[in-house]
Predict the structure.
Amino acid sequence: GAVVSQHPSWVICKSGTSVKIECRSLDFQATTMFWYRQFPKQSLMLMATSNEGSKATYEQGVEKDKFLINHASLTLSTLTVTSAHPEDSSFYICSAVQAPTDTQYFGPGTRLTVL
Amino acid sequence: AQSVSQHNHHVILSEAASLELGCNYSYGGTVNLFWYVQYPGQHLQLLLKYFSGDPLVKGIKGFEAEFIKSKFSFNLRKPSVQWSDTAEYFCAVTAPNAGKSTFGDGTTLTVKP
């Protein structure tokens, strides 16, 4: 149980285009999901907290207009990187929180490369 | 604000050696504590967690961790490592009901066969 999927697993796009990444909790409902960036050989950097039915909460320094988050249902959150640039190239990871233990389960990540 | 410190950036061990990875956190209140593992090419997986009760927590694959409240520590241990334990290990702290976790910088464990 407690499986989280992400789609796509990798994506290459041209600079200036937008990319949508999906995060799904497959066998549980999650009112809260998190989006992280992970740089090579570094830890996870929390970008935002996605709450079902309400606006996402962004961490300091993360542009909300750049990284659009939509938590449309209890099993799906999407991250859209708008007008992507090469510096947005990274590994994006989502996690879903399983109540009542508040344990996070992580997706496999999405490798974004912006040319 | 919470912070998590993992003292060892890279640990190299031979098979059958004992392992201890340090994790210290700074937060004044009650916390939930986690260790995650990321095997090469795979996603983060939960190794073990501590919420309350017995401070010695046993997780998967023979790992255990001990919560020492007075030292704000949650060190990860394994008596005898295997080559397959080669991975990145992350300690994380969550304030109950706060939702988001703070992660340490991670420790890369390399086990030589």
Summary: Residues 39 and 101 of chain A are 28 Å apart (CA to CA).
